[in-house]
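Run: sequence + magnesium ion -> complex structure.
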Amino acid sequence: MALLDIDGLDAWYGQAQILRGISLAVDGGEVAVLLGRNGAGKSTTLKAIMGLEVERRGRITFGGVVIDRLPVHEIARLGLGYVPEERRIFTSLTVEENLAVGRLPPRGGRAWRHDELFRLFPNLAGMRDRPGGHMSGGEQQMLTIARALMGNPRFLLLDEPSEGLAPVIVETIAGTVAELKRRGVGMLVSEQNTAFARTIADRVYVIERGEIAFSGTFAALEADAALAERHL
Ligand code: ADP
Ligand code: MG
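>> structure
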């Protein structure tokens, strides 16, 4: 069984069913991209995995543990990190303080040290005492990822990490994803930016109206004329 394994996930906001039978599997050190247009259900999928906001039904296991009925803090403690689309950093706290807020006790594995995080995100190194509110969107995105890493996750859910960022920052984020992968961290990354998705993805899932419409390699997606037309 894969590190993160999802089988037949449905999700609702109130009476409105958004996800239908989502199944996907991602291993440690593997990067899966969830590709889909606005409103397709990408954020809802990641929220449903984390146990946030939505009503969910279906089987979700993480590291062999059934998590589909666990509350979000217990899921986080198992080593599943989540970087929301809205980058919820604390604007009045400094970079260092934001990182401290994200700290969780390491589970056996090695904990990320601040100096390692600053090597991963050199832009942040020079602004340790800067309030989060005085940072650019790209810097805030890096801080959000760095803060999630303070929880020493085995797996990260990244919700549209490239959204609204300058190309040079998107490149930095792609480098970060590659480095995390090298360290064995698995990732499920929701995206609309196909160029970025192509650089990072080992596997692609296409989501349309709350259902998985394709699963496979980027090359296979490109070879499917109808899907490629809609998504690439
Ligand atoms: P994506 O992240 O792919 O853009 P979302 O998962 O945010 O898509 O949204 C999927 C669908 O769920 C959309 O139709 C959206 O309008 C609806 N939706 C999102 N958030 C809520 C909410 N809090 N309450 C009701 N409907 C929502
Ligand atoms: Mg979204």
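>> summary
The pocket of adenosine-5'-diphosphate (ligand 1) is lined by residues 13, 16, 18, 36, 38-44 (CB under 6 Å). The mean pLDDT is 93.
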